[in-house]
Specification:
By secondary structure, this protein is an alpha+beta fold. It is about 15% helix and about 25% strand. The protein has 2 domains: about 150 residues, no CATH class; about 110 residues, no CATH class.
Length: about 300
């Protein structure tokens, strides 16, 4: 069973390409308050919150996600190798791949998917790990691994064995050498970018949040809370408003975003029921309190306290 997800794109056709993590700035402390600085490690990188998910369904660890990512390359690499190389625009030596030093957890804005349906839907709407695979010092492949992947196992040959009701355990893409249009952003780089463009400082540890469906887990955005309101203008709309939260995403033309708050507390989809006839039912997937599934691109405008 396959469930489609979408890469968020702007105007340029190349914005579905994905690059490696941007490096941490030399002095993240300049762009955060004392409270946020408390979560910076000695290397200047944030110690991010431990992975967690709503409800009582268990999730795998980041270490397990890395193991599964490598096993998925061994399992499906022979059939996907050419597509990955086309993404990258060059050769990829699968045998040399290793997991990067930082596996990111993208939490989901959705609550627990209702019981009684094919488990691929719960995986699709749930949190994901973003695992970057390197060849030497170069990021060449991104594997997104569903956090609800506890039923997948690795056999004695190092290959993935998925459950009978499989689907949405992994998504993969080659990382192009040209990272100009779409690049995974580290939390430190996101903080620096917002600090430089707004003059404001971040007040808490960044959180990586998935966009609403049907967008790909790789389009997750960093949620940054600022120490002051900053003026922004929605792209193409002309109106200016002030916000205290900005989201930094990987697509260049939609790098800075704000949440579009609505009253909806659920989102309707069709899901395959666990019944003999595999009927498709309408299902209302809960949206967690305080979360949003809609975002809009913005530009920061002049007029802040330090501008």
């Amino acid at each position: 069973m396959a469930i489609a997800v979408t890469i968020l794109t702007g105007c340029e056709a190349t914005e579905s390409t994905v690059g490696g993590l941007t490096p941490a700035p030399t002095d993240t402390h300049r762009f955060v308050t004392a409270t946020a600085a408390a979560s910076l490690g000695p290397d200047g990188r944030f110690v991010l919150a431990a992975p967690s998910a709503p409800g009582d369904r268990p999730i795998i660890s980041a270490e397990r996600a890395g193991e599964l990512a490598l096993a998925s390359v061994r399992t499906w690499g022979p059939s996907l190798h050419r597509a990955w190389e086309q993404d990258r625009g060059g050769p990829i030596d699968l045998a040399s791949l290793r997991v990067g030093g930082r596996i990111l957890f993208a939490r989901s804005p959705y609550g627990k998917f209702p019981d009684g349906y094919h488990p691929a839907f719960a995986r699709t709407y749930g949190p994901y790990y973003l695992v970057t695979l390197y060849s030497g010092s170069h990021p060449v492949l991104l594997i997104t691994v569903a956090a609800y992947n506890e039923e997948a196992r690795i056999d004695e040959k190092g290959l993935v064995r998925r459950p009978v009701q499989s689907g949405a355990e992994f998504f993969s893409m080659g990382l192009p050498a040209n990272e100009d249009e779409f690049r995974l952003v580290s939390p430190e780089a996101a903080v620096e970018e917002v600090g430089r463009v707004t003059g404001a400082r971040v007040t808490s540890t960044p959180e990586l949040v998935r966009l609403g469906m049907p967008y790909h887990p790789a389009t997750a955005v960093w949620k940054l809370t600022l120490d002051r309101d900053v003026p922004v203008q929605a792209r193409g709309k002309g109106s200016t408003h002030r916000v205290r939260e900005l989201y930094v995403g990987p697509v260049r033309s939609r790098r800075l975003m704000t949440a579009v708050r609505g009253n909806a507390r659920s989102e309707r989809t069709g899901a395959i029921a666990n019944t003999p006839d595999d009927r498709i039912d309408p299902v209302d997937v809960p949206i967690l309190a305080g979360e949003t599934v809609s975002f809009e691109a913005v530009d920061v405008m002049p007029g802040g306290p330090d501008q």
